[in-house]
Structures are given as structure tokens and as C-alpha cells.
Amino acid sequence: MSLTLLQSTILFGGIHGIILAFILLADRRLTHKTAVSYLSAFVGVFSLLMLRNIAEMTEFSVKFSFLFTLSSALVPLLGPSLYLFVVRMVKQTSARNHLEYYHFLPAAGYLLFLVIAGLGFDIVDRTQLKNYPTLMIFVSVLQAVILLLLFAYIICSTHLLYQAKQTAKNYYAGNEQVSLKFLFILLSVIAIITLIWLIFFSADIELFKQARSQQALELFWLSISLSIFILGYYCLLHPQLFNLVIPKTSESYLHKDEQQLIAQQQALVALMEQEKPYLDPQLNLQQLAEKLAMKPKELTYIINHRLNRTFYELINQYRIEQIKRRLQQPQSAREKLEIIAYESGIKSSSTFNRLFKQYVNMSPKEYRAQFS
Prior knowledge:
Elements: H1 5-26, H2 33-56, H3 60-63, H4 65-70, H5 78-91, H6 105-120, H7 133-168, H8 178-201, H9 214-237, H10 258-274, H11 285-291, H12 296-306, H13 311-327, H14 337-343, H15 349-360, H16 364-369
Helix pairs in contact: 1-2, 1-9, 2-5, 2-9, 5-7, 7-8, 8-9, 10-12, 11-12
């Protein structure tokens, strides 16, 4: 069996991806092991699919045609493993929920169907489906349903992340939401890959299969191989991605006495102006609530319903005001903007520039130039 350089690269990528899946499982730095297990499953399944498509280009698929056909049941595993990974990342729970296993029933059902079809119709090769037009249509419908399920899982995962992002704004004031951005990017890449698979390769649906360029197919799987590398190694190099806590949505405190709410609001404003806790880049809702001797849910209600802001907006507005005061001073002309931002509680220069322009409608340099 001879392989081209491109095919050998994809083969190496598939094997490496499987090894990477086990490395992710074994890495103790990655907390929330249940989420990691689903991520490992996703990486492993994608890697097996790469090996499967290399087999399709060689004599292996002919020698082991029935086994090769059964491997089609790997595709329905992608959606559930991705979705459950996102669920575990957002909810941050480690206990297994037996209901999660129901997500894998379509893959089990499809595998059972392939076995029955293979034994009942004596089909050991996908090309033999052409001899059974009705069965080919039925298989194509099943494949289309599997594709729709994958898109549904991507949409549900995106919606879940959006809700988590909105909730996180009431807990974090820095760039801790990088975990969510990473997940949004991951879902976007998977959606693009799936669309390319559908548009250019008919998503391997039997009824719509068309002649396709071998080189184009190899380049497609090579891009997937690179995506798996980036995904896996990014997680290994940034274990903090698995440490983000997404708090539950706070309950209403409308039943509280108005005078008590006013007193809590005044205490918050006084603390922010006198002690300036926002200068701490790591400040979160829990820490601020402890300084005020309040429950996090109470503080969230005060910020949301009395000040009409999220925690993220409140803290960063104070930080921007602090930066503006610094920039108005003549000696600031000799200071680096990044240092001023960091000392005001903003660690990231890109976040600093974005927030400053959002609140002041001009860049930090333009604002400082007015006072020089």
C-alpha cells in the first residue's frame, strides 16, 4: 500500500489525534474531568474519521469493506460529544447524568441498522447499495437526519454559550470569559467544516454522492487534521480554560425593603469610590460581595436593577474613569498606556482599547493628547 505525502500527513494526523485524546484524558491540570472526557471523545472520533477516509483511498476499504461500512456510525457521535462537552464546561458539574447517554442512541441505532442491512441484504460494500434503490433512499434519509442532528447540536451549543456569556457578565469583570470565546470559535470552525462537507462533498449522503476530486478531499481532511491539532494543544497549553465558573442566574429581591436596598446601593457606591476594589484585575462578584457583607445574589440584584448595569459594565466603567483621571495628568505622557491600564485593573491591552473607545468614543492616545 503506497500513500502520497498528503495522505501520509493525514494518516499521521489521525494517529496523532487519537494519542492526543488519551493525553487530554490523562492531564491532571485539566479540571472537570467529565467535560474533558467528552472533548477527548470528540477529538478521538474526528481522528478515527480521518483514518477511515484514508482507508477509503486505499485497498483497506476493499479488504475490510463491511467493517469500513460500520464505521459510518462514528459520524452521529460528533454532535452529542461536542454538545455535552459544552454543557459540562458551562454547568461545571462532574457527576454523571445517565440521561446524557440518550444522546448517543441515534449512533447506536444507526450502527444496528447497518449490521441488519449488511446481514439481511448481504451488503458488505456501500457500492452494493445501488442494487437496492429503496434501501439507498432510506440510508440517504438517515444520513440526512444525522447531518441535521449535527447542525442542531451546534445551534443548541451556541445558544447555551450565549446564555452563559450573558450570565458571566454578572460575575466577571476581566477577560476570564476567554473560555467562552474559545468555545464560540470552536463551534464556528466545526460549523464551517460541516458546511464545506455538505456543499462540496454532499456530506457523504449516498443518494447525492457525486464525483469529487481526490486532491480536494485530501485537502479537506488535512484541514480537519490541523483543526484537531490546534484544538487539542490549545487545551493542553491553556488548562485554565477548564477553571471558569459560570454562576447560576440570581433570583429576584423585589420583596426587600426599599430602605435596605437604598442602603446597600449607597454602600456599594461608597466602597467603589473610597477603596477602589476595581483596581484588582482579578476582582469578581464573590469577592466584592464579601467586602460588602452581602450575598452575591443580593449584590447582583443591586447592580442589575438599581444601577441598571451588569457587574462587567459597572467595574469596567469605574476602571475607565480611573484611566481618564490618570491620562488627564501631565506626567502621564511619560507612562505607557498598557501600564496605566494594568494599574487600573485591566490586564489586556486589546480589552483596554476596546473598552476605552466604547465608553469615551475615542482612543486612549487621542484622549491623552487633549491634555498634553
